[in-house]
Write a structure and sequence with these properties.
single chain, about 500 residues, mainly alpha, two-stranded antiparallel sheet, two-stranded antiparallel ribbon, 21 helices, 4 strands, about 75% helix
């Protein structure tokens, strides 16, 4: 590969990540201006990452399906809050209470997602504006339900939930006291509990798989597609950890934890990243024999090595060493990332990708466009409901009438800061965006105080940044649609759709 081609590819990578680099520079400047200690900064950042990432990931599927940035995830958050109110009313608590909230929120979110999906199909080309208006309408209905219907029409006698008049739900519902204790119950799940449940869950999965194959008179294979090799490997690993924890005291101490040391977790994550991209480099270069030097793996390996060297700096390592990362919450985020990658490889996921690229071509290929878009909206709304549950259990408190109001704006802003666009989003964009956007959230008030003598300056700046990023993305999206339409490259036939978005 010639030097010129390498330079051009590097320039393209730099241009594609210009928003990420800009915000990274702003965050670096804000860190030095804030004079915040690394202990406090990393503690806040990793807490916010575990709290908000699941919600941001819920935006990816509708973007891939061509629905744009789904402001309708606010409605998913409302579904979660309605479920929380019902479970508190029934006296649910602990991990079982949170699990019950997720179960109750599921059908509510599915119904809401279906209705929003029907709306999006009726206003193709203006889904983002429609999502904003729909969220405002749903908020009015939500407040009517909680302020008037509950207690006013449906008698409810619950002092912990209802106002003193008996009509309307309290402004604030706390999860930190009995009997409605649900504060950080997901964050407090120990590694040992995860290993135990995972072990017995895998045993049940393998038994069900074997019985299913025997009933269908299918051969039991280990290595072929649909075989049992991977489940057996997972079972053996979990079984070894589970069994050795009874005889090996250090392992028992380790799995009894519910939070990992931040420095330990980051170092191993970077090692895993280096190993993964080295494997991809070797596969593309020598196994698949692409004939050219793979640039993307080299870029990621370089970034991981640089981050590894940064982590070794005394201030950084000291700050990370005082961070406790909740294992189960981060495992949920990791599982969500794997789910999105798997889902996009399924037939339904590929159909969504096709619909997002060109609805006319998708229709010609026999894909039910409206049905696919509704499914994408339902999935996004449902995942947003789960994300709101994670957020609220971490806070340990729910502001009944306002906790949901800004989740859409902040989640969308974080996704865009990570380098996503209205028509392109991935797991990488979500993770990088959450780290950068919430770094700015943590640093801005102190930086504003030190630079301007007023913390509100920093607060105004981060609110401005969140809304400015969204506004710029919408303007660029509208401009690109109009430009493509004028060149005859638009996906749709009607010029009014391009104009509607503009």
């Amino acid at each position: 590969m010639s030097k010129q081609i390498v330079v051009e590819k590097m320039r393209d990578i730099f241009f594609e990540n210009k928003v990420v680099l800009l915000f990274a520079i702003i965050c670096l400047g804000a860190f030095y201006a804030s004079e915040m200690t690394t202990v406090l900064f990393f503690g806040e950042l990793f807490t916010r990452f575990g709290r908000n990432t699941f919600m941001v990931l819920s935006l990816i599927i509708p973007v891939v399906a061509g629905l744009g940035l789904n402001f309708g995830i606010v409605i998913g958050a409302m579904a979660a809050q309605i479920a929380i109110i019902l479970v508190v009313l029934w006296g649910g608590s602990g991990f079982t209470g949170v699990l019950t909230v997720a179960i109750v929120a599921t059908p509510i979110a599915i119904v809401f997602g279906y209705l929003v999906g029907r709306l999006f199909n009726a206003i193709k080309g203006s889904e983002m504006i429609g999502g904003m208006v729909m969220a405002l309408f749903a908020d009015g209905f939500y407040q009517f339900l909680l302020l008037f219907v509950m207690g006013g029409i449906i008698p409810i006698a619950n002092e912990r939930l209802m106002t003193g008049t008996g009509v309307g739900v309290l402004n604030v519902i706390e999860f930190g006291t009995y009997p409605s204790y649900m504060r950080q119950v997901l964050d407090d799940v120990s590694i040992g509990s995860i290993v135990t449940v995972g072990f017995w869950g895998m045993v049940v999965f393998i038994i069900v798989t074997i019985v299913s194959k025997l009933v269908k008179k299918q051969p039991l294979r280990l290595t072929e597609s649909g075989g049992l090799s991977k489940p057996l490997v997972v079972l053996i690993v979990l079984g070894l950890v589970y069994g050795l924890s009874f005889v090996f005291w250090p392992l028992n101490v380790f799995i009894s934890q519910n939070r990992l040391n931040g420095l330990f977790a980051v170092q191993w994550a970077l090692v895993g990243m280096i190993v993964l991209w080295l494997y991809r480099f070797v596969r593309e270069k020598w196994i698949e024999k692409s004939g050219s030097t793979p640039i993307k793996p080299l870029v990621h390996i370089t970034i991981a090595v640089i981050l590894s060297l940064i982590v070794l700096q005394p201030d950084i390592s000291h700050g990370l060493n005082h961070v406790g990362i909740p294992v189960f919450t981060y495992l949920l985020i990791f599982g969500m990332c794997l789910f999105i990658r798997w889902f996009m490889s399924t037939r339904l996921g590929q159909n969504m990708r096709t619909v997002g690229q060109n609805r006319v071509v998708a229709t010609s290929a026999g894909i039910n466009v409206d049905r696919t878009r509704i499914i994408a909206t339902i999935l996004s709304t449902l995942l947003a409901a789960y994300g709101q549950i994670i957020i609220l259990q971490n806070f340990g408190i729910m502001n009944t009438y306002s906790s949901h109001s800004q989740v859409g704006v902040y989640a969308i802003a974080a996704l865009l800061v990570g380098g996503a666009t209205v028509s392109r989003a991935s797991v990488k964009h979500a993770i990088v965006g959450v780290l950068l956007f919430h770094s700015l959230f943590v640093l801005a008030p102190l930086a504003g105080t030190n630079l301007m003598g007023n913390a509100l300056i920093g607060e105004y700046f981060r609110v401005f940044a969140a809304n400015a990023v969204i506004a710029l993305a919408l303007i660029m999206h509208a401009w690109q649609r109009v430009k493509k339409y004028r060149k005859g490259q638009t996906n749709e036939a009607e010029p009014k759709e391009a104009g509607a978005t503009a």
